Amino acid sequence: MGTEAMLGLTGKDFVILAADGQAAYSIIRLKNDADKIWKVGKMLFACSGPPADAGNFMEFIEKNVILNELRTGIPMSTKAAASFTRNELAHALRKGPFQTDLLVAGVDNDGPSLYFMDYLASSEKVNKAAHGYGAMFTLGLMDRYWKPNMEEAEAIDIIKKCIKELETRFIVELPNFKCKIVNKDGVKEVKL
Amino acid sequence: MEAINLAGSTVGVLAEDGVILAGEKKTTSKLLDQAKQHEKLFQLDDTMFCAVAGITSDANILINRLRLTAQQHAYSFSEAMPVEQLVTSICDYKQGYTQFGGLRPFGVSFLVAGYDAHHGFQLYHTDPSGNFSGWKGYAIGVNNNTAMQIMRQDWKPGMKLQEALELTAKTLVKTMDTASPTAERLEFGIVYKTAEGQVKFRMLKDTEINKLMADAAPKEGEEGAASSST
After folding, report:
1. Domains annotated on chain B, with CATH
2. Which residues cross the membrane (chain B) (predicted)?
3. What structural domains and CATH numbers belong to chain A?
4. How much is the pTM?
5. Between the N and C ends of chain B, which has fewer C-beta atoms within 10 Å?
6. ipTM of the predicted structure?
C-alpha cells in the first residue's frame, strides 16, 4: 500500500474510477499529472504501485486483451479480463511479483461491474472500492453515501466528497485527481 | 480419410433451440462387450460435445486435448470457452501434423456441437487437414452423401429440436445398412435449453432413441412413395 489513492464506484449503467496524479520515486515527486487509469479495450483499469511495475504490467495486460480480441473476434468481458489479470498476478506472485493494486471496471451486456484486485492476486467483485492509503479515509464515506442505481452526478458527488476528505485529513497532499467513467458507449474523462 | 468414410454414419443437425449429434456404432462382433462404453459421442464441456469418425485411438488423444483446452480456458477466464474457439484450437493442432515430415496426421473427423452466449447453438465439422466450417446439418461416415442429400432437402430454418430429432432419425434410417436400427447400435446426444433457460447437455435414453427410430422407419406401403419423391 503506497501513498496513493484510487477510488471506484458502480452506478446504474456505468462505473466511475478516480486516481491521484502522483508519480513518486522514493520520497521524491517525479510528477503530479500522471494518468493511472488505463483504457483497455472498452474497459478501464486503475493501477497503483511503483511506476515501473504499474506501467509494465498494464501494458502487458492491455496488449493481451487486444490480442485476444483479434484472435477470437469477440471482445473480452470484464469478468474474463479480471480473471485473466488475476491469473497473471497469481502466476507472477511466486516468481517475480508485480507490486500492482488494481481496480478493473467495465460495462457488459449484463450491466456494470467493478473488480478489486491486489498484488497478492485476490480478486473481488464489488460496488465500491479503494486502494492505497487513500482507502483508509474514503471507504467509510463510500459506505455512507453509495446506493444502488446511482446517476452519474450522484457518483461524481461521492468521489468529490472522498477527495475533500483526503485533502482535510491525509497528511500527504495528493494532487490532480483524474476521474473517468466507463459506460456501454465507451470511456470518458470527467472534470472534477 | 479412408477410415473416416468407413466409420459408422454420424449426423449432426442444428435446430433453433438446440443441436443434435447422432452416430451409428459399428459392432464388429457380438462377443464385444460395449454396453457401457461410448464409441461415438463424447462430452467436452458443460454445453459442448462431439461425434467422432476415424481412427479411435487418434480421436481419444484429440478428445483429451479438447477437454483440457476447454477447462484451461475456464480456468483463465472464469467463463466457458466459446465453441468456435475450441474448434479453432484443435484444428490448429491437427494442422501442425500436416506440415512436418515423419509424423502422420490425426485420422479423425469431428462433428462438434455446442452452445455459447456469443453465437448460440452451433455445429462444426473438422477434418484431418485442420479445416473446419460451421453447418446447419452435416454427415460423416458411411453413406454421408445420401445423408447430406436428405438433410439438404428437409432441413428448414427455424426448426425446433423435436423436428430436428425426427430429421436426424430419418437420415439415419436411410443411411444405415440395417432394416431396423435400435438403440443398441445408436448414440444420440443433444444440447438444449431447459424451460428455465438453462443450457444443458444430455444423451438420449434407449427408450427415447427406439421411439424416434420406430417413428422414422418407413411404414408399410409408404416405402415406394418416399423413395420416388427423393
Report:
1. 2-229 (3.60.20.10)
2. none
3. 6-186 (3.60.20.10)
4. 0.88
5. C
6. 0.87
